[in-house]
What does this fold into?
Amino acid sequence: MKFTVTHAYAKDTETVFKVLTDESYLVKKFEATGAKNIHILQCNQAGKDFIIRRQMDIPANPPELLKKFVKAMNTVVAKDTWKSFDKETKSGVFELDIKGVPISMSGAITLKPTKSGCDYIIDFDAKCSIPLIGGKLLSLAENDTRANQKMDYEFTRKYLMAL
It folds into this structure.
């Protein structure tokens, strides 16, 4: 299942990139979206890439049918790898693994300039290893991801306005 989320910010790509790659901002943002036990494992330039690795417990709201597969709190391990961040348009990839849930997500991240600031575009590709109820699990993952992204956007937009 593929889907895209776009966040429009009123700041340039350089400013937004500096915020998105700031460890203290990341912890505050994840806390604001309900995450617990947040661990930023890496947040630095490594060779030609800028890598952010993190682990945290995030809330989910599975329907009764899916509670066998998805708990109310799930451990997520994620890695963002910004491959190009020295130009106005910045891009990278991400991987996200939800421990104990047969779903994985990966995709592309892009900061692209606009007339009024920049767009942060996240292209998700979610996969499920269970054929029969996989579609329902992926739908739940997309809905939860979109809800988390909405909270993420609101937090980040306010954070950027305070700069």
Notes: Residues 19 and 25 are 7 Å apart (CA to CA). Helices lie at 13-20, 23-32, 134-161.
